Structure to design on (248 residues):
């Protein structure tokens, strides 16, 4: 159930030139109970005092079951953005108002599929980072396969890329395809692909009888991938979507 709470910035670093990883703790000292894939809302006011809020996916890698003390988000800066100003300038120990968790973009008990196709652009990869312990359990307990197609313009914008690479090395059931839209990186890796995620999708030969897909991030990418997966025959309830649109 969603709660209201304050968050204090405990740590932060730049993930990419215009993406900041922020790690918070609740001011009341309580842990956050959330299901990987859910998001928080940050509440603040415009310069004229009018209240507003923005949503951010929780990216914390917990142990898969317990609540977490650290609440991690990745914020991609938008030029002229109100939340961008707040979260890019927030100093360590700075406090913000928040509420959550919200959303149903989560792995679901009761699914019997063989393979999950996870697709993201930009900060849309953070829900999958939070899901890694559940993904590990699904590979181990149900023999599931996972393929992550992660779209970025270049290597520098592959957020948490080395974490996903390391997870893929440790878990043969997890394949990570960085999809680079502005050309190959200086030292290409075997699973790299060139182009947009939706064009790489065809290579996976999505199947209605074995696949469930998750799409997160840029709304145009989500729409294009949704259309391609529907065309491939996947049922709409097997194509789960989270669009990162501004909620002003
Ligand atoms: C469920 C959900 C989860 C989300 N999770 C994340 C997350 O984990 N990380 C994250 O960075 N964002 C996430 N977002 C987007 C986030 O909530 C804000 O919309 C985003 O940070 C921009 O807010 P802002 O106040 O800085 O910009 P605004 O003041 O809302 O917008 C400023 C200007 O930029 C334009 N604009 C807004 N967003 C974009 C964009 N993405 N690209 C180009 N132009 C834009 C607006 O139209 C406006 O002209 C999520 C959105 C949703 C709905």
């Amino acid at each position: 159930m969603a709660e209201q709470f304050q968050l204090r910035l405990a740590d932060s670093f730049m993930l990419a030139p215009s993406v900041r990883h922020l790690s918070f703790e609740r001011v009341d000292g309580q842990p956050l109970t959330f299901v990987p894939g859910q998001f928080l809302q940050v509440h603040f006011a415009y310069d004229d005092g009018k209240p507003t809020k923005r949503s951010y996916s929780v990216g914390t890698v917990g142990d898969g079951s317990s609540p977490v003390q650290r609440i991690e988000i990745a914020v991609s800066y938008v030029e002229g953005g109100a939340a961008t100003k707040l979260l890019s300038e927030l100093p360590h120990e700075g406090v913000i108002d928040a509420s959550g968790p919200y959303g149903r973009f989560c792995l679901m008990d009761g699914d019997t599929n063989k393979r999950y196709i996870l697709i993201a652009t930009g900060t849309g990869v953070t829900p999958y980072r939070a899901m890694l312990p559940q993904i590990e359990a699904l590979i181990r307990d149900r023999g599931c396969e996972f393929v992550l197609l992660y779209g970025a313009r270049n290597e520098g914008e592959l957020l948490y890329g080395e974490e996903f690479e390391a997870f893929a090395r440790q878990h043969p059931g997890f394949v990570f395809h960085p999809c680079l839209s502005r050309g190959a990186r200086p030292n290409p890796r075997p699973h790299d692909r060139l182009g947009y995620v939706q064009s790489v999708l065809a290579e996976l030969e999505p199947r209605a009888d074995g696949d469930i897909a998750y799409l997160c991030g840029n709304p145009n990418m989500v729409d294009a991938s949704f259309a391609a997966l529907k065309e491939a025959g996947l049922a709409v309830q097997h194509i789960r979507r989270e669009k990162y649109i501004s909620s002003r």
Residues 126-142 form the longest helix (17 residues). The chain has two domains: 3-102, 115-243.
